[in-house]
Amino acid sequence: MKAARFITDITLLSFSKRIPPRERVEWAGKLDAIGVHEIVMGLSSRRELEACGQVIRRAQQAVYVPMDPVQLARALRSGVRSIHVEIPISYPMIYTVYRKNKDWARKTMCECRDMVAESGASPTLVLADASRAEPYFLESLVQLSEGMHIEKLIAKDLMGIQTLSACAELIGTLLSFGYELGYEGSDQFGLSVANTIQALRSGAAHANCCLGNVGGGCDLRRLLQTTARIFQYGIDRKGAEHLDRTFKQQYRGERLRERENSRPADCRLR
Prior knowledge:
Layout: E1 3-4, E2 6-9, H1 11-14, H2 21-34, E3 38-42, H3 46-55, E4 60-66, H4 69-77, E5 82-88, H5 91-97, H6 102-119, E6 124-128, H7 135-144, E7 152-156, H8 164-175, E8 181-184, H9 192-201, E9 206-209, H10 220-226, E10 231-232, H11 237-262
Parallel strand pairs: 1-10, 2-3, 2-9, 3-4, 4-5, 5-6, 6-7, 7-8, 8-9
């Protein structure tokens, strides 16, 4: 019997700036129709989120926000109850991307925890750059989230150079915290599908994927084809393949530019 696993689609998050609002709503409905478990999108207008909610009939609708109390408060007011909160979990992520320090990370984590606990929402914590996190710091931030009624954790590999053994070790560490777990891999070096399969084999229940390999993430079509004999996702494979082809045809030029911009500077064409 195949093991059950779940697909979280991040196409509308990774590619949101390239797709007009009306088309984002249409694609939300199409993704729901093929049977993905969850559809994650950026924090947009209440009108757009409500429109997406009307066409999403089976999947869970979620919005993605950084670890920022202002944006988190806006997300909590949006009416969408499933929220993915990005937690910068590595020192490079905190100091380089957020331009903050570890004390800020701890303080802001506590502030966000209190806001979510008061709202009654059940967030998903996206542990950004988890593959480069110091184990002690990673564990300390997750412990600070107690009281948030966490739905699941997602280990997000930003660099795309994680080895299979390191991926399995990270999943084992996160599972020890007692939460349901997901994985999101980067495809900058073509490793996202392999690492996502390793994560699923190691105990992760959710895989973050996207259509057409946009944004450098795990390609939904390739994952379904590669793991058809070992996992059951509850997805219409033929429908997913058709949707993937349609997406590529409609946004081919934009998709290629997106992938080019997602590469490390020294890997881009000159």
